[in-house]
Amino acid sequence: MTSKTLNASCLVGLLIISCAGPLAGQQKPQWAPGQVGMNAGILPPPGFTYANISLNYNAGTFNSAEGNAIPATGAYNVWAVENIFYYVPNVKVLGGNLGFMTVFPTPATGSLAADLDPTKLNHNLSLTGGGSGLGDIYVQPFSLGWHTSRVDFQVAEAFMAPTGRYNPGASDNVGFGYWGNHFTTGTTGYVTKNKGTSVNLFTDWEVHGSREGVNNTSKTPGQAFTMEWGVGQVLPLKKDFSQLVQVGLVGYDQWQVTDNGGTVPVGSSGATIPASQLPRYSVHAMGGQIAYILPKKNLSFNFKMEHEYSSSSHFLGNTIAFGGNWTLKIPRK
Hints:
The structure is a single chain. With 333 residues, the protein is mainly beta. It has one domain: Lipocalin (Beta Barrel), CATH 2.40.128.130. The chain has one helix spanning 3-13, and strands at 47-63, 69-70, 72-73, 76-88, 92-93, 96-103, 107-109, 125-126, 132-134, 137-147, 151-161, 180-190, 197-208, 211-212, 218-220, 224-236, 244-256, 261-266, 271-274, 282-294, 299-312, 314-329. The strands form 3 sheets. Strands 1-4-6-10-11-12-13-16-17-20-21-22 form a 12-stranded antiparallel barrel. Strands 14-15-18-19 form a 4-stranded antiparallel β-sheet, with no helix packed on it. The chain has a two-stranded parallel ribbon with strand order 3-8. The radius of gyration is 20 Å and the shape is globular. 45% of the residues are buried. Mean pLDDT is 86; it is low at 1-25.
């Protein structure tokens, strides 16, 4: 397997995971982990790329700040379908490729941004939510990607605009109700010369604006840091490398890194407490990913499942993501 063959397959066949976008969720930041894994550092080649990710997060447990399960009824089940559009012009900036990306529309179901009553974080919880609609828009107006013989690396600056439905206290919110800024990085290092074996790391640091709450309250969610990683191996399904498969081990880790700001209501009495008293959340997961790649058609499909094995002040469940992508190269080769 030549390095030229694998380089082409990575650049045009596995873009869906480097085009990941965010989803909503209470006691979770805007970025929904589990979308990036293998090939985290690969920016699409010059041209237009369309990617589609269907993502499901399903949890029947909510863990306390100590990591112990809180008695709960129902399940927190969210489905979202991300439509991702990427444009990479055939120009260089600082030696890297310039890129632009947006994620919209994102149809979603489930109570994506419903508040949890802080007085019940150590008592019985109802995890059942409802509602459907379009989630917030995610825009990445700037990204740069560099490609070398042993490393692919990209950095990006993005924001999430509160365009989805949000009403304070509603149980069917689909939008977050606040702005978010995302600084992301992606790195793919190649263990072997032919780029068949890779190690990958993606990071997202997000900072949030203020969100209106009930009873004249407002909350600024604390900043969050997400790390997604993967170790993968590409194998040929045909001797001419027209069909490839990539398999690997993937996982994610996510933390709230600063306290919340503002105030939040307590119960139905109208009383409030400082949002900084709410505990910080964290979650950790591990799973597997498989991708089917058709390099000559600039087309690929993949499936990923990750199980959350630890969390605090956070749901504990499973993330499933699957979809495909296609690139129209400009100029054509």
